[in-house]
Please model this.
Amino acid sequence: MILSRASWTNRNAPSREAFCICAVLSILVAAPAFLMILLLDSQLVLPALSILFFSDAMITALLTWAKSGNATLENVTLWDVAGALTMMGCAAAILGEPDQVALLFEQPVRLHSDAALGDSASP
Model:
């Protein structure tokens, strides 16, 4: 009786690999999101988070596709995590305004064009 319970525990326990993958994906989402909230203007946070969630969903889907077996953590597969990240990216994109997205992509272009103008103005 005790032997059968031990095999059940080993069979149903989450694997160390699944836990490590979950930790890495959590860091891939949390660290950039925290930096975006601190460093970006409040109007630019939602479009930037949308891009972050979509890129993390793509990374998760590629990781899942590359693995031969399904890494599960209590019946949640990496495909489920990729789908959840996609849904969060869609929600952030829907809640954001189109003007905010234009500002997000206009800012690096403006900085690059100002640097180019400054270089050409010097003799």
Q: What stands out?
A: The mean pLDDT is 75.
